[in-house]
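Notes to self after the Tuesday call (sharing in case useful).
The group wants a holo model before anyone commits to mutagenesis around the pocket. I volunteered. Ligand is 1,3-dihydroxyacetonephosphate. Logging inputs and output together so the record is complete.
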Amino acid sequence: MKYIFANWKMNLGIRESIALSRAVMRILRGEEKTPIVSIFPSFTVLNDVRKIMARSRVKLGAQNCAIEKKGSFTGEVSIGMLEDVGCDYVLVGHSERRTLFAEDNELVAKRLKSAMESRLTPILCVGEPASERESGNAEGYVSEQLYSALKDLKIPKQKDLFIAYEPVWAIGSGQAALVADMVFMHGLIRSLAKTITDHQDSKIHVIYGGSVDAKNAYGFLREAQVDGVLVGGASLKIREFEGIVQSASEVMLAQEL
Ligand code: 13P
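Result:
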């Protein structure tokens, strides 16, 4: 199986979200073998998108969640509320949260723990900034992010553990990681995650994010180390997104996944 996750970030209002959700449904209808697709829209349109995706295989995800269950936390959205609106997934520690909203490793670990204890499946996002890659410390930096998020985490046996490798310099830059570098990092992430958590291998999924588009998606998705992609900008353009979904379908057909 391959996973195609669409992170719409803070881009679409109600009408645009409804139109794009309908278009996503249409492209999936034509595919013989489809990857698991999930859309991560803004909080304000989760309910609208859910209604369109109801009774389809398309999943719903949130871009963030509160750590606390309930109470006086103005502006936060709890995990219970996300469950209530029909979310399956939630992103945790996206690089934009880490860099623009000062989420450090400790806070990300708490958020991941809260989400892991719920019915949602969290997707832990990691990735090094350009300076760390240039100084040869990409592995060390990502290992530290993983270690601090996973070291005290209890993962229920039946639950999936998703980790998105999104190098900060590749996000929104049009400069995706080289396939060889990405495959190497995915291997490292998978083996570290396995060592730290002792979770069942088949339940650990490592996906790539950072300037994925219709042209480069096949090259990433055909790699065995790549369980899927987390797409930002290209998920807002239906032709690009269609190309990415088609690439996943082709890989799944060719590799009998
Ligand atoms: P882009 O695909 O726009 O580079 O964004 C990636 C991302 O941040 C997905 O979470």
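Two things stood out.
The chain has one domain: 3-256.
The CA atoms of residues 32 and 249 lie 7 Å apart.
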